[in-house]
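Q: How would the structure tokens look for this protein?
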Amino acid sequence: MLEILIVDDEFFNRRLLCKMLEPYGNCTEAVNGVEATNRFVQSVQEGKRFNLILMDIMMPRMDGLEAVARIREVEMGYQLFDADRAKVVMVTTLADHDSILAAKHIGIDAYLLKPFDRKKLIIKLRHCGIDLQD
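A: Here is the predicted structure in token form.
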């Protein structure tokens, strides 16, 4: 079972992603980047790391790009590299070139544009190496 962190300031988006991913793991929700980084640090400290993070970009308090950058710093500090790192999928409406490049620069594994359906989500997750059993 995967440990999944879903980060989005919109309740409906979080619930939709949770519903789509419930068959594959345990979903934890966060409403912004600050809450996401705190939950991530806590999970690493407790030895229960998230395998997968789905992160929106545009959120209050701390955006998704900054949150992922901080999460990657935490992983480096705990010497979590390659296979031990969480897979991160940006799930956003931002389709501009600069947003996509910024996300790739901080180490995301995939970029999924809203609106999406379950099929597109599953394809994207498999593409970035998440093994899902249907």
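The first strand starts at residue 2 and ends at 7.

The chain has one domain: 2-127.

Upvote if useful.
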